[in-house]
Amino acid sequence: xxxxxxxxxxxxxxxxxxxxxxxxxxxxxxxxxxxxxxxxxxxxxxxxxxxxxxxxxxxxxxxxxxxxxxxxxxxxxxxxxxxxxxxxxxxxxxxxxxxxxxxxxxxxxxxxxxxxxxxxxxxxxxxxxxxxxxxxxxxxxxxxxxxxxxxxxxxxxxxxxxxxxxxxxxxxxxxxxxxxxxxxxxxxxxxxxxxxxxxxxxxxxxxxxxxxxxxxxxxxxxxxxxxxxxxxxxxxxxxxxxxxxxxxxxxxxxxxxxxxxxxxxxxxxxxxxxxxxxxxxxxxxxxxxxxxxxxxxxxxxxxxxxxxxxxxxxxxxxxxxxxxxxxxxxxxxxxxxxxxxxxx
Amino acid sequence: xxxxxxxxxxxxxxxxxxxxxxxxxxxxxxxxxxxxxxxxxxxxxxxxxxxxxxxxxxxxxxxxxxxxxxxxxxxxxxxxxxxxxxxxxxxxxxxxxxxxxxxxxxxxxxxxxxxxxxxxxxxxxxxxxxxxxxxxxxxxxxxxxxxxxxxxxxxxxxxxxxxxxxxxxxxxxxxxxxxxxxxxxxxxxxxxxxxxxxxxxxxxxxxxxxxxxxxxxxxxxxxxxxxxxxxxxxxxxxxxxxxxxxxxxxxxxxxxxxxxxxxxxxxxxxxxxxxxxxxxxxxxxxxxxxxxxxxxxxxxxxxxxxxxxxxxxxxxxxxxxxxxxxxxxxxxxxxxxxxxxxxx
Amino acid sequence: xxxxxxxxxxxxxxxxxxxxxxxxxxxxxxxxxxxxxxxxxxxxxxxxxxxxxxxxxxxxxxxxxxxxxxxxxxxxxxxxxxxxxxxxxxxxxxxxxxxxxxxxxxxxxxxxxxxxxxxxxxxxxxxxxxxxxxxxxxxxxxxxxxxxxxxxxxxxxxxxxxxxxxxxxxxxxxxxxxxxxxxxxxxxxxxxxxxxxxxxxxxxxxxxxxxxxxxxxxxxxxxxxxxxxxxxxxxxxxxxxxxxxxxxxxxxxxxxxxxxxxxxxxxxxxxxxxxxxxxxxxxxxxxxxxxxxxxxxxxxxxxxxxxxxxxxxxxxxxxxxxxxxxxxxxxxxxxxxxxxxxxx
Lengths: 344, 344, 344
Prior knowledge:
Three copies of one chain form a homotrimer.
Chain A: E1 8-12, E2 21-25, E3 28-34, E4 40-44, E5 58-60, E6 63-65, E7 72-73, E8 79-81, E9 95-96, E10 98-101, E11 104-107, E12 132-140, H1 144-152, H2 156-160, H3 168-172, E13 176-180, E14 183-194, H4 197-205, E15 213-223, E16 227-236, E17 249-262, E18 265-274, H5 281-311, H6 324-338
Helix pairs in contact in A: 1-6
């Protein structure tokens, strides 16, 4: 079950150079490429001539040339040229609306006419030079909603990520969940603790004593269809937590763009934006590497959970207070899907 | 088709240490671990919180802690603790009765209330210090009954194991099959032959002349649901065969515990118990290594046979005199399955 | 969809030595071996005893001995011997008619009684000492008709094989398609061009100036059920093309035997027969190696096309003039299938 009438991250802007890129989003096979103006475009990954995947072809003069017999497709999905053929009566393929912003290429897998650029959520810290960003991509063989559950309930850090960001105080501290203007927010604040290894390193990198007592926060925000931004950080104890002065805290946003591929798999663009030592590329890389390792730990769990749920189809799960974020997010998705044209 | 109300080998006792072990038996996903007393226990491999496999977790103070969000399960399948939660109303998961004996952990995948410790077959030679044992484990993508057929008809040794235990005299000598107190026995005795390579080595190891004429025996015994014990050996010709004095024979029991995983795959614990040079660990290892190689030769055949049968679903097979052991075993299994509560 | 009442290449004659060979053709699992006279024979790959694949066995005295329990099958599919058994009432397995000719073993997967040796197409250049031949085998996970389409429309060379035999002039030159005595012929003649890399090397190997202007031809001939022979070559410009004197041209036949395995996979025996420097084994090997690399480029495209078509089942494709060869071949196949006994 996915919301089709929505913007999803298809790839990073950097991943789309000269070569086209094939990617399945919400069960739609899509070929992405750059047209003659350099703009990212997306069309069905199906050559109307003989059904070859267009993404195996190459881009020439802003058109996608099928790698089998050379039919050239425009960024609007219109056959534009083929040696020795008149292509004006050839059938078109679907075009998918695209926006390139925040360093990502966003695709709208639903009705093109319904695509609304204003529906793209705002991620100001991804455009702000006062922030640095690094991230990566995983393919996960699990329903994308299991990833949302995962990110909206960070008690799992204690167990899955015991050696980096997990600490017992997390699941000893209750979290609060609320709806806030079309988003779901789950928040946990932990006062007067020692920072776990990942944050100790961040404190050190930012000139703070890693052994100092800190206040820690985790504010997870789900925005439909499937983005989770998590405000995270630690501040010296008693200095105001997330509102502490810049020199008394380390603060970051965990960025999670979760793009359904099929009903049981998804693409997961993860990353971290931070507001300290933003010019330090080595630090960016080291955080990225550490985060990649930590997030990799979730993959096996999610893929095993997926198989376990498939083997136990009728079975009810528990929805505890810690699961409230994921549960609200799922209900929000269900409501949106029911309102879609395809549901009528 | 499997008997559910029965004891199956889940793993060796040695395989179950600090870490839990996930294993599917008769289509049931089971997590095995050791409780606070060190006793092996088995519960459903499904966390009642969010469906994660419990076997990915860890054991703490005799409880199985889910590796996702930390729900602790007791060996009875009862939620016992979770940070920040009251677990007394959490649903339980199934518990599977367990017996640890003969160096193996035995699980009863059927109704727990029906589990009868007295139904565990006796394997005295596995507890007797006058015998030594070595063995291993294979996963086989074939119906477990194909393995029973294989072991209850040793004429295949001539073809599959030509270079170790096979010899032409095997399939030239008729076998006899009989029912004996709820078991199926297939027996072959071959008089006045030369020993094949495996037994020549065993004779030499036991101080006998490997070139001497011998009498050879193979007595296969199937006990439901799916264990096959095979008395095997050679004695100097004319000294009484299996009843010859200890210094005139080499004698062993091939141990086969065949545990259905799904309808088309099984776990195969194989081994050999012997009553000569029992303190010689190097000999144990060398026999184990040789047996592992020999039994590995069966795997390809069984997996190919399985695929061939799946491609020819309606097809009748022959049941010859040499197949009588397997045929009786299958009928015995069918009768037991028909009598099970699940069949009613 | 395949024609069953027809001869298909099962393997090269060289591939069938002492060991049997298992191969699925038109969904029939077949075991091939050589009988006591050295003649290739083919029977069902299913032992009537316990269903083991006979092709895992060995050949002894012209009989196929099952590798599991030793049942010996004759080349007619009749049980001939089994130690300790009377086999005269054992069921037979199917026999498949076989012809060995042109360096290949041909099998008739349909009704044995309908097999007509005269229906084997003639390939005189494969028996003529004035020609040399080299080739190879690929397994392709795609409907065999996608391979026929591929070979009956060589405009794809421009795109798929740009660095070897492709050149822009191919798809700028129209092709002509005609029916000719139960075969489909697609022909393209290109006058006054430079030869592409593969043919430059062939010209050089044959003592011609590789920089000379040439006339190039491609004459693709489909013969049911699924063989495509392609006359290819270049001649010095204006010397008569394919009819030019031998010292003014390089000429070859691309040999394509396409054998359906299942509805979505096939075996592809490809090769090249040439009429120049036929004694030069190193040249044969170098052409074979180059052709293997070129044809390997088609495999990914065909397998991706197959998956794309499976994901878009109802979708219509275009049939352009360049596709006429493949379209005629498909219609010819459909007509033959409708006339088969199995269709009635």
